Amino acid sequence: MSSIRISSQRFVEIFCAIVEAGNYTLAAQQLGLTPAAVSKAVARREAAVGVPLLRRTTRSMRLTAAGRSYYEECRKALTLLEAAERGLSSYQREPAGRVRLSVPTTYGHYRVLPLVGEFSDLHPRISLEVDVSNANVDLVADGFDLAVRMGKIQDSGVVARKLEQARVGVFASPTYLDRHGFPRHPLELDKHRCIGFVRPSTGRPIRWGFVDAGGTEIDLEPSRLLRCSGDFLACVTLARRGVGLVQSYHFVVAEDVREGRLVEVLRPFAGRSAPFSLLQPPGRASLAARLFADFLISKTC
Fold it and tell me: Which are the contacts of 217, defined by CB distance < 8 A and separation ≥ 6?
């Protein structure tokens, strides 16, 4: 102990313990030190400041005037330090951190972004960074904690959790249907103007899928196809304006259907759906990422 220099913070703890315990021996026991070490610490500090802090006799110990003033300031400092420590522990009780999520544009606008405010209210110390884009990202290389993806997951190196099986249907505006009539079978789509989304990864329009009354799946690419790329919502906008038919997820057009801007057609063949999954990179995710993942799944499954 004699060779160790005691920091000012440590001496404040020692001095307050001495005053509050009433003697060196009890203070030493509380601090895990020897009485001799406590006595030497006081003697060194008194020598350093040039004034006595304590008066000791064989039967009692009392503060000097300087010691009383010093104790009051030390107690204030120690109280502030203890409050700061409690503040840090509150961070442990209340999850904190940053979560980076990659999500396709359509799913982002209609499924994820409407939930961000609710999650932030539940966990105000968790910062969300949502990248809404149809670009293919590498979770590890690009530093993402989570990613939403549609379709069957081929990468066995990621952890995939199901979000939902999203239903699809074919929709058109009432004005378009008034002019061109209702298709009754998917094979009649060649008589209609259809609005197709070009998949960025292939440069090809996404084929339209149906299920007939016997459960047989039908995949086709309408011949009269108006192609859109970049953002699927452009296809919905064109359909809403009466340009043609669009095959879309129900969650995208639900409000348009309620408000009468779009009408579903070919409902007897609308049994197809597409899976959406939430991906995590390999390894243990942070608490913040796990909380956001669980929250999204609870809202979509």
Answer: 209, 210, 211, 272
Q: Is 252 helix (H, G, I), strand (E, B) or coil?
A: helix
Return the structure tokens found at 93: 């009780």
- Torsion, Cα 122 127 131 136, to 10 degrees, reads -100
- What CATH number belongs to 8-90? 1.10.10.10
Q: Residue 88: is its pLDDT beyond 70? A: no
Angle at 172 between CA 171 and CA 173, to 5 degrees: 140
| Radius of gyration of the chain measured on its C-alpha atoms | 35
Q: Dihedral (C-alpha) 269, 272, 197, 250: value to the nearest 10 degrees?
A: 90
For residue 156, the one-letter residue type is S
pLDDT tens digits, 169-205: 999 999 999 999 999 999 999 999 999 998 877 888 9
Element (H, E) at 172: strand 159-172
> What whole-number distance in Å separates Cα of residue 300 and Cα of residue 2?
65
Q: Could you tell me the fold of the domain covering 97-164+275-300?
A: D-Maltodextrin-Binding Protein; domain 2 (3.40.190)
Is residue 1 predicted with pLDDT exceeding 60?
no
Q: Which CATH architecture has domain 166-273?
A: 3-Layer(aba) Sandwich (3.40)
At how many degrees (to 10) do helices 113-122 and 287-300 cross? 130
Strands 61-63, 54-56: pairing is antiparallel
- Using pLDDT thresholds of 50, 70 and 90, give the confidence band for residue 3: very low
Phi, psi of 10 (to 5 degrees): -65, -40
